[in-house]
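Board notes (copied after class):
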Amino acid sequence: MKATGAGGFATPALRLQSAALEIELRLPDAAIADAAAVASLTQPTGPGTLSQTLGQAYLTLGRAYQARGNSPEAREAFRTALTHLESAVGPDHPSTREARELVAQTPAGP
């Protein structure tokens, strides 16, 4: 784990919970920062390695971009989430289904 400032430590799950709350509080920039931090700190262990944590990070990142009105960035994050989640937890997992629906619903352009 990495320090998050002021000597504190946060797990990826805690950062993602913070990002979800920030989206609800209409603080998309803070949510983007938290979700992007989880995505950058949660590196795959090798080529082709996909993970549930990265999938959740990109799903949250997509929601934050969507809340900010950035549809192209949101759609790309949802697509990345879908790739990770399909492999890590399967096509029928609720998060995978949500990512698939969000990819379909989110416009590719402005």
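Comment from the instructor: The longest helix spans residues 71-89. The chain has one domain: 8-105.
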